[in-house]
Amino acid sequence: MDLNELTAHEILDLVKSGKTTPSDVNQAVLKNVKDKDKNVKAYVRTCDDAELTTPKTGAAFPIPIAIKDNICMTGQETTCCSKILFGFKPTYDATVIKKLKASGALFVGKANMDEFAFGSSTENSCFGPSRNPWNLECVPGGSSGGSAAAVAAHEAIWALGSDTGGSIRQPASFCGVVGVKPTYGRVSRYGLIAFASSLDQIGPITKDVRDSAILLNIISGYDEMDSTSINTPVPDYTKALTGDVKGLTIGIPKEFFIDGLDPEVKKSIEDAIEVLKKKGATFKEVSLPHSEYSVATYYILATAEASSNLARFDGVRFGLRKQPSTLRKSPIVDMFEETRDAGFGAEAKRRIMLGTYSLSSGYYDAYYLRAQKGRTLIKNDFDKVFTECDAILGPTAPTTAFKIGEKSDDPLSMYLSDIYTIAVNLAGIPAMSLPCGFSKAGLPIGLQIFAKNFGEETMLRIAHAYEQATEWHKKKVKL
Amino acid sequence: MLDYWLMITKKDVEYIAGLSRIHLKEDEIVKLTSNLKGILGYVEKLSTLDVTNVEPTSHALPVKNVFRQDIVKPSFSQEEALKIAPQQHDGAFKVPQVIE
């Protein structure tokens, strides 16, 4: 097996025992990027090595990593896959990058994403879509589709994504890899270009559960530069991987098994439940009665926050600037309006417009305030379930990866593909996706595990126990 | 009670575009009018929620009044901040005329 097909912990073991060298690992990944990325299109840019003087030691050395293009790295162009940020070279590192650099990470490049993380397929990237390594005609999911595709195609050993409504978990599910959305406040967002600040969270995308635990160890922790960061101790997440789920109670929400859930996905989830039952976990049916409101609630709150966050892209301090030659309103307003028209893609405009509408005078109470109350009800549903369960289990997405172009003209059907992932961000809780099967067509299926706030250890423990009992994570893409 | 979406017109979309500071082209306005109708029609679902005596949630975790010590720390230099400016003049960001 090629070095780039290994997990980070396997590589760390080989390096430690002298069976391979950091340089061989790096070369194996870079060669694969060169060979495969013209088809997969996971990366929008590779990193300029000269800028990256990391120590040759640490928990992330020598592991090549892909970074979603909405995370700032000093001197490395960071665009959120939007024309409005063309040429933007941040003058600082995001906190997660600072931590990775201190841990000796090798940065391969910036991964493709839906523009400003608006989407579930990477089709909204101004650079065009990434491809699903399992079937190049299918989307890799989104918005962190480039990160997930890079890991699945062995063009990186692991990756960072961001998750506002499922943007780590859904692409992980579509690409057959592991993706973790940590508790809100667990990982600093300083240097993550904001989409919806009350929902955004950075997290790992890896080849197995142990790698997610290791990467989470590296990036977690309090940061005074992010006022939403929470000052609770970071446990060693690898210690949670005991393989034992005896005594744990796992809830299955009845609302998850609805029309629209692909029968093959449903079957895989049911099989996963049997596997965990055999390992000693107890299952019980639970209810999240407000689930059906989560997509509507989310698309009001997330777009409202996005419209406000994206007000900063005005052509004044960084990025694109367009000055029309003829005067329409006033020289400065014309500059703002032309810059934003030229710089934002269709989905970004749609979300800014929807958010501006729901926040505008006369509609605020009916939409924004009502959605905030809906959020309370959704959060209360989870709180109630977690008084009787240690975790919740269900599908990550209602289907396997869809075809490129299949949903791109229908924004609402695209939004509904997030139905199982969205409520998690509204509630703040952690959740993860891991492979639990393949469809007849050969596309990966994802199992989602949810835990209560700061319950990452329980979540990882269940995921790891499931993974130990199955072989899905060992199936490799052949491109 | 949330039936505003039924009444969304091209004129509303132009007004929201103005608030959003985006100069949309004619075909974009037509498309967005139909998109917004569709999405808001779906969001109409929220009107069936009973929110009597429910407090709004703006933040998932209870973190309040996060202050830091009032200590001056090094930040970006003027030179660094201007390095990525679209246009600059005399150590400042240059913008089109603002005041008549």
Could you give a quick summary of the protein structure above?
With 479 residues, chain A is of the alpha/beta class.
Describe the structure.
- Chain A is of the alpha/beta class and 479 residues long.
- Helix content of chain A is 35%, strand content 13%.
- Chain A contains 14 helices and eleven strands.
- In chain A, helix 3 links the parallel strand 2 (64-68) and strand 3.
- Chain B is mostly helical.
- Chain B has a two-stranded antiparallel ribbon with strand order 1-2.
- Chain B is flat, with a radius of gyration of 22 Å.
- The model of chain B has no long low-confidence stretch (mean pLDDT 89).
- Chains A and B meet through helix 8, helix 9, helix 10, helix 11 and helix 12 of A and helix 1, helix 2 and helix 3 of B.
Secondary structure blueprint with pairings:
The complex is a heterodimer of chains A (479) and B (100).
Chain A: H1 8-16, H2 22-40, E1 43-46, E2 64-68, H3 95-102, E3 106-111, H4 145-152, E4 158-163, H5 169-175, E5 178-181, E6 201-206, H6 209-219, E7 249-253, H7 263-278, E8 282-286, H8 294-309, H9 331-343, H10 346-359, H11 365-385, E9 391-395, H12 411-416, H13 422-427, E10 431-438, E11 444-451, H14 456-469
Parallel strand pairs in A: 2-3, 2-4, 7-8, 7-9
Antiparallel strand pairs in A: 1-3, 4-6, 5-6, 5-10, 9-11, 10-11
Chain B: H1 10-19, H2 26-43, H3 78-83, E1 88-89, E2 92-93
Antiparallel strand pairs in B: 1-2
Features:
heterodimer, A: 479 residues, alpha/beta, Amidase signature (AS) enzymes, 11-stranded mixed β-sheet, 11 strands, 35% helix, B: 100 residues, mainly alpha, Histone, subunit A, 3 helices, flat
Strand content of chain A: 5-15%
Lateral arrangement of strands in the main beta sheet of chain A: 1-3-2-4-6-5-10-11-9-7-8
Query: Rg of chain B, please?
Result: 22 Å
Number of helices of chain A: 14
Unreliable stretches covering 5 or more consecutive residues of chain B: none
Main interface by residue count: A-B, 77 and 53 residues
First-last Cα distance of chain A: 14 Å
What is the overall shape of chain A? globular
**Overall 3D shape of chain B:** flat
How helical, in percent, are the residues of chain B?
25-40%
- The average pLDDT score of chain A comes to 95
Average of pLDDT of chain B: 89
Radius of gyration of chain A: 21 Å
Provide the CATH top-level class of the domain at 3-247 and 395-474 in chain A.
Answer: Alpha Beta
